[in-house]
Design goal:
The complex is a heterodimer of chains A (209) and B (221). Chain A has 209 residues and is of the alpha/beta class. Chain A is built from six helices and nine strands, in the order βββαβββαααβαβαβ. Chain A has one domain: P-loop containing nucleotide triphosphate hydrolases (Rossmann fold, 3-Layer(aba) Sandwich). In chain A, the strands form two sheets. Chain A has a five-stranded parallel beta sheet with strand order 6-7-8-3-9, sandwiched between helices. Chain A has a four-stranded antiparallel beta sheet with strand order 2-1-4-5, covered by helices on one side. The chains are: A alpha/beta (209), B mainly alpha (221).
Chain lengths: 209, 221
């Protein structure tokens, strides 16, 4: 897991004629917590989506490697755990059903013990059988962390990880981020000073205009 | 890949049972369309060719009212990103295609049963030919509808765009299926219907191959 690397080569993104960022280069080869920061509209979410393979860059390349083997885009989702406020889970299912469905669609075993551990960590164990539509925005945000962690990906991408969370929720998230940063690459896109304090390296997007 | 696609189909199936996104609109459309046709016919007896044409017209418009839900519902609920994070494009397309195939078969079976009960000239002489036309037509309809649904899901005016984009793509299939249905009504043999059958088989194969090749580009922005 520690030999995973992400390399960005002259990454640029335009929406129509509007330049979001250009020539972003980084090479994250070590496990750790990496930050992406910048003012509103600087392209933090766009960059993490490109890193996760969800959208394509206008130019440049993002390379994910496991040891020396480059990961093909078709399989990239298996290596990524993603949390963001704009991620929506299936509201007509319970938290438990959601997580079980995700495991089956991913083609991985549904490890009940692990899921219960995370549900307890994120203070959702007693509400696991309730439909997600009955959850508060903070509870939905915590559930997204379990969604990101349950398949033990090599890369964790957290876009605005503490949005909608109360102090208790933030503490749980920070503990998890610190712990996961010891074993894998964790990327945090945020403007929150407390979120960025966890990072060993911060990419400032306003420099890439 | 098959197990993952089946899991995605099961998710859609259970989701459909809880939300009734597509089933209700399909059922209502079938009832309304057939009722309107019956009222407009009155006591007149319509010809076999008109019956075959109206049969596929109802099938086409029913498909237009419900089959886009496969992708549109994901886009409207904002769960497209979630799907992109848990499955490969091939898995997503296969899962959605299985769901639409089953929906199309169920929906068209109901339409065929209602037609055979309510329309005097809906009498099939060559049942194997009708069955083959029905199966091949449904496969073509499901594949084309699924890929078009994926294309229009991100567009603004989805409701208008879906039938507009589907019409030229589905026209060769619908016209050939109308002809084959007419052949099955008047008892034409398989040998005589060979050319039309080859068109439908060719259509299905082309749509199936093109859809899998194109979906990767459609799915990712």
């Amino acid at each position: 897991m520690s030999s995973y690397s992400i390399q960005s080569q002259n990454l640029s993104k335009l929406f129509g004629r509007r330049l979001i960022f250009k020539d972003v280069n980084f090479n994250w080869t070590e496990k750790g917590i990496f930050g992406i920061s910048g003012p509103n509209g600087s392209g933090k979410s766009t960059l993490v989506k490109i890193v996760a393979g969800l959208i394509a860059p206008s130019s440049g390349k993002i390379i994910h490697k496991n040891s020396t083997v480059e990961i093909i885009p078709e399989k990239l989702h298996n290596h990524i755990g993603f949390v963001s406020p704009y991620l929506v889970l299936y509201e007509e299912f319970s938290a438990w059903e959601n997580l079980k469905i995700f495991a089956k669609i991913r083609g991985v075993d549904f490890n009940e013990e692990k899921v219960i551990y995370y549900l307890t960590q994120f203070l959702l164990e007693n509400r696991k059988n309730d439909l997600v539509k009955t959850y508060s925005s903070g509870m939905k945000q915590r559930l997204k962390f379990i969604f990101a962690l349950m398949h033990s990906p090599e890369v964790l991408i957290f876009d605005e990880p503490t949005s909608n969370l109360d102090e208790e929720g933030k503490k749980v998230v920070y503990d998890i981020v610190r712990e996961e940063g010891k074993h894998r690459i964790v990327i945090i896109a945020s403007n929150e000073i407390k979120d960025l304090e966890l990072c060993s390296e911060i990419l400032l997007l306003e420099k890439f205009k | 890949m098959i197990a993952e696609s089946y899991a995605l189909f099961k998710k859609d199936f259970h989701s459909e049972l809880r939300t009734r996104y597509a089933i209700n609109s399909l059922a209502m459309f079938i009832i309304v369309a057939i009722s309107v046709i019956l009222f407009s016919i009155g006591n007149e007896t319509i010809t076999e060719s008109l019956t075959a044409g109206l049969f596929w017209v109802v099938i086409f418009f029913t498909a237009m009212s419900g089959l886009s839900r496969a992708f549109v519902s994901e886009e409207e609920r904002g769960t497209t990103l979630t799907l992109q994070l848990i499955a490969s494009p091939t898995t997503v397309f296969s899962g959605k295609l299985i769901f639409n195939l089953i929906l199309v078969f169920c929906m068209n079976l109901v339409i065929a049963l209602l037609y055979s009960a309510l329309f005097e000239k809906f009498v099939v002489q060559n049942f194997p030919l009708f069955l083959l036309t029905f199966i091949l037509g449904n496969i073509g309809l499901a594949v084309a509808s699924t890929i078009i649904a994926a294309i229009i899901a991100k567009a603004g005016a989805k409701g208008t765009l879906y039938p507009v984009l589907s019409f030229p793509i589905l026209l060769p299939l619908i016209l050939t299926c109308v002809q084959l249905t007419l052949f099955s009504f008047d008892g034409t043999s398989f040998e005589e219907a060979q050319f039309e059958l080859a068109i439908v088989v060719g259509y299905d194969v082309i749509m199936f191959t093109a859809s899998y090749m194109l979906f990767d580009f459609i799915w990712k922005d």
